[in-house]
Amino acid sequence: MSSVEPLKARRLYLLLRDRILSGEARPQTRLPSEPTLAVDYGVSRVTVRRALDELEREGLIERKPGSGTFVSGKTAVAPMVADFSNVFTHLVEMGRRTGVRLLSFGYVPPTPALVEDLKLEAGERVQRSVRVRLIDGQPFSYLVTHVPERIGISYSEADLASTPLLELLERSGLAAERASQTIGAALAGPEVAAALDLEIGAALLSMTRVVYEPSGRGIEHLQALYRPDRYSFHMDLVRTGADGARRWAPVELSRPADPQAPILQKRRPKRAQPQRRTAR
Amino acid sequence: MSSVEPLKARRLYLLLRDRILSGEARPQTRLPSEPTLAVDYGVSRVTVRRALDELEREGLIERKPGSGTFVSGKTAVAPMVADFSNVFTHLVEMGRRTGVRLLSFGYVPPTPALVEDLKLEAGERVQRSVRVRLIDGQPFSYLVTHVPERIGISYSEADLASTPLLELLERSGLAAERASQTIGAALAGPEVAAALDLEIGAALLSMTRVVYEPSGRGIEHLQALYRPDRYSFHMDLVRTGADGARRWAPVELSRPADPQAPILQKRRPKRAQPQRRTAR
DNA sequence: CACTATTTGTCCGTATGTATG
DNA sequence: TCATACATACGGACAAATAGT
User: Fold this and answer.
1) Crossing angle for the helix pair A45-57 and A34-41, nearest 10 degrees?
2) What is the rounded distance in angstroms from the CA atom of residue B91 to the CA atom of residue B95?
3) How far apart are CA B81 and CA B272, in angstroms?
């Protein structure tokens, strides 16, 4: 009973939903007509209708015959916004909104890449744990963590399910002094898709972080995958250094010194899109 | 007239290509067998073969009958890595590797979101420009910029095609003092897909940045969309403040690129020996 | 040297989504 | 809205090549 799904329609549905939920297509505004959408996205009108049907079923749009299709004012669930410069995930702030599920835990031989990133010695094994973070009961991040075995033994599996890893490491007397982060994008494989309640091939935000102790050896390697509709990174910067150097430093999140501070926790990135008219 | 494209096969192809180009699947390693892939990704073997055919055609994999499918040592084009804390896109570093195409330019009434973000006054219009950045002749970013009209008039359309916007603003005597950035993900619409040489619905890295002058008014609103295979954000952090505060500050960009990191590969529920074809 | 297990390569008929009118 | 034509996707089955026992 492997019924095949309407793939093109689903893709278009996802695209339009993304536009609506991201706030690009604002409530009460009219969507392009069905024939226009069909031409724009290179599909038939039947496919467009299928996508719109789905959106209508979810209450995201309202169709008025003879008039057009309109974005309804349905609000999306507030996504989570993280301060990019804050390496610690502070449970205090997250509070009871978030939870953690420990999917797997064990000690494995490291891959070559891990040896390089963590500067492991020959034969040294790593502790590998896979966790899923939830917000309001909904999964939003998939975390694969690798820690050198000599460090990993300082806490238990149960600790990991309740306490942020970096906090555990600190309690063990380890000093996290330097960190290195890279943000990119990736596609969801079967495991991740299942864990994050997505379909295979969905787009994800990815972050790779390596934390080092003063000696320069790595103490944590984290590969995180986020649902972009539920998580994004944010950073406020101020100009520093009168030496003409174009340096910018992050500012505190908690203290919005300026009443006009531009941060709003709930704001999501807008995806701009040239509505009309392309130039070549 | 080929009316329908192989969507599932294409998706699987993109997924596997992502794994290979990102370095997760390392050269010379063996991919899971076709039946295994079919089960893992919930498609038929025929579909798996189509995806592998495409990869083989591009030389990313080598198939050895009876033996398996192997990742060939073909190196991906080095993607661009940006220092996240550096608001300025320094042409100096980018040098001649990069180029800019100005797609559109003009003055338009602002959207409600823009009014809010830039703190525009009633009736104030904005200058809107759409640019595409190229690296080695290949497009990697799609930039939609909005600038208040009172500021935009200080430079010409030609300037914009050759000089970074923030530099132009500085020359006009404007002080960029604070900035606010959000990174997320988005899906490619028709225009962006065409501009970035992608297909509609492809995943993109998105960044929204608003730059403020000391008075608190916005002087630039940038919506950037990046091809994740050609661009990513990087940041090195050091611990600051012995006051126990968990502050981290960015340091100078030292090393070029961390190859993108590990995602998990589905393990077979069978009795698997240390076959270890996992991620890195 | 065979025997076995697993892999890729090739074929089939069937079912269903998509485009067209 | 409906019906038709076509391409894709599916689940088989079987052959050939490879590697390990």
Assistant:
1) 110
2) 5
3) 38
Q: Mean pLDDT lowest for which of A127-141, A156-170, A266-280, B205-219?
A: A266-280
Q: Give the pLDDT band of residue B268 (cuts 50, 70, 90).
A: very low
Q: Which domains does chain A have, with CATH numbers?
A: 5-71 (1.10.10.10), 80-266 (3.40.1410.10)
DSSP states of A181-205 as a string? EEEEEEE--HHHHHHTT--TT-EEE
CA distance A77 to chain B (A): 16
Best probe of the A interface among B129, B191, B230, B267, by most A CBs < 10 A, is: B191
Which residues in chain B have Cβ-Cβ distances shorter than 8 Å to A11? Answer: 7, 200-201
Which residue's CA shows the smallest distance to C1' of C16?
A: A4
Given an 8 Å threshold on Cβ–Cβ distance, is A111 in contact with B280?
yes
Local structure of B194: helix, strand or coil: helix
Contact A51, A61 (CB under 8 A): no
Q: Sign of the CA dihedral B143, B79, B19, A179?
A: negative
Cβ(A49)–Cβ(A7) below 8 Å: no
A230 closest CA partner among A269, A263, A262, A258: A269
Tell me the β-bridge partners of A17: none
Place of tokens 């730059």: B211
- Across the interface, which of A221, A234, A274 has its CB nearest the CB of B130? A274
| Tens-place pLDDT, residues A51-90 | 999 888 888 888 988 889 999 876 555 667 777 666 665 5
Q: Name the H helices within A178-276.
A: 190-195
